[in-house]
Amino acid sequence: MSVKPEWAEKDYYADLGVSSSATPEEIKRAYRKLARENHPDANPDNPEALERFKAVAEAHEVLADAATRKEYDDFKAMVARGGGFGTGGAGFPGGFRTAPGQGFEADFDLSDIFGHAGGAPRGGGLGDIFGGVFNRGGGAGRTARPSRGADVETHVTLEFREAAKGTTLPLQLTGDAPCTTCHGSGSRSGKKQKCSRCDGTGFTSEQRGTFGFSQPCTDCGGTGQKITDPCPDCNGSGTVRRTRSITVRIPAGVIDGQKVRLAGQGEAGPNGTPAGDLFVSVSVKPDKVFTRDGDDLHITVPVSFAELALGDTITVPTLDQPVRVKIAAGTPDGRTLRVRGRGITRRSGTPGDLMVTVQVKVPSTLDAAATSALRTYAQAERDSGFNPRADWAGNK
Question: Residue ranges of the CR-type zinc fingers (predicted)?
Answer without folding.
Answer: 166-243
